[in-house]
Amino acid sequence: MKLKHRVIVTGTLFLGMSVLFLVGILFASSREDAAETVKNVPKVEPPVGEEQDPDLQGEEGLERNRRLQQKVDHTNRDEALEKQPRGPEVKELAAQRGPKGRELSDDPQFKIPPEIIGEGLRVGDLRDGVGEEGRDPWKVWGSWVRQDHFYPDDAFWSADMDSILHAMATYPILSFDVGHRGTQLKASMFLGEQRTAFKPRRYQRDEVIQGDPYAGFDRHNAEIAGFHLDGLLGFRIAPPVVGRRVNLTYVWPVTTDTLRNTYFKDTYGNTCFYGKCYYCRKEEAACANGEVMEGSVTLWLPEWYELKTRRHPYQRTYRPNHKAKWETDDLYCNNYIISKSDSDYFYGLLEFTDSCIFDFLMGNADRHHYETYAKASKHGKLLHIDNGKSFGNPYHDEMSILAPLQQCCRVRQSTWDRLQELIHSEPSLSQRLDQSMRRDPAYPILTSLHLQAIDRRLDIIDKSIRDCFAAHGRDTVLCAKWPPDT
């Protein structure tokens, strides 16, 4: 009996030691994996020329550093873009995620059902099918893009532009993924082999955004309106944007696991997701109406069009009670731009005044960084990309947006001519904009209050330029080119 008891005890001890040994191995392995994971987390850098302030503590410090980090929306785009699937990879990815044994194009869930358009949404006056002479819309887009404009002068109202917008609103989605790294929630969508960016709706059309002029989430309808306004002003440096409703159930088979893992149902049964970005979190998710989510679709630039991100000379501090130098020094433009003929900012002077006119009309006070074509000589065109912080408050005209115009007092001759045409002819700019946006399936895009604000702000711009005429002379203010002696 004693021998039997000893055998049982010995066996139990041996088994216990074996279990402890195995647990130790698993624990060590998990620590190594965790360390490797932490090591591989990408570091998010603060904006160019800015540092996070270690002296600010508590809520003020958190808010300061959060606002600083919100300024890196485009900085890491190129690196993230390289990790996205392209061309043939997209087809292979879609085939892997599609229903087994069937082509995606043959499956009914990849047709465009009526509920994707939804009540109150229509394709408007967009022309169906391909463009003129049966041309493929994505190839037309690729053939249009130049370093200083995205489409020809006569293309804004063309059948080809309509076919591009129609394709963006209706083409089957072959891949639905998280967007490139940044601070605002977005998704990456491939329509065939064409990449696009999808920004979900965050607000009702008539919601007024209170607080700072850059407050709130990005507005998807602002991206749509920005494209149409840019075209009407003749700039042609905003990529096409269209409204679209996406049925999240229909695109589930082609949604990546990374995005799927952020899906959940809210208390009303709506499908929501919060994606992957610096400030993306469940508490600030975007939610569909049931399964159908409205958003904006922005056309991606061709692969050869490399972007360079620059810090805007009129960047805000994004700190309460802390003003930037340009906000306190009326000679800022003369001392830091006009007199610095060896700097990139000097060559970009007319780009700053063009863009501030564009931004003021929309109420966009968040142009902290900007992008140009990376291989452009000198400065290059300041591209009107990322206009989501526009059209927040139709009752407020944020005069600080016009600082580059009012301080520098230099305006491109062609911009002045176009503004005068819009001011002194019918229909008004707001009526033209509303007419153009009727082409969008998500129409109406802007409320009547926002449209009225555009005409009011156009008069303010006109007065500001005429004040420059009075102070410096018309011949000095209006420039056919810059520098004028080149």
From TrEMBL:
Location of the protein in the cell: Golgi apparatus
Composition-biased stretches (Basic and acidic residues): 61-109
Positions of the catalytic residues: 366
Region annotation (Disordered) ranges: 38-111
Cofactors named for this entry: Mn(2+)
InterPro entries: FAM20, FAM20_C
Biased composition (Acidic residues): 48-60
Annotated positions binding ATP: 184, 199, 298-301, 371, 386
Pfam families with a match to the protein in the record: Fam20C (PF06702)
Ranges in a coiled coil: none
Domain FAM20 C-terminal: 263-477
Residues that coordinate or bind Mn(2+): 218, 386
Domain of life where this protein originates: Eukaryota
GO molecular function, one term: ATP binding
Keywords, ordered alphabetically: ATP-binding, Disulfide bond, Glycoprotein, Golgi apparatus, Manganese, Metal-binding, Nucleotide-binding
CC terms in the record's Gene Ontology section: Golgi apparatus
Regions crossing the membrane: none
Family: Belongs to the FAM20 family.
Record's protein name: Glycosaminoglycan xylosylkinase
Lineage: Eukaryota, Metazoa, Porifera, Demospongiae, Heteroscleromorpha
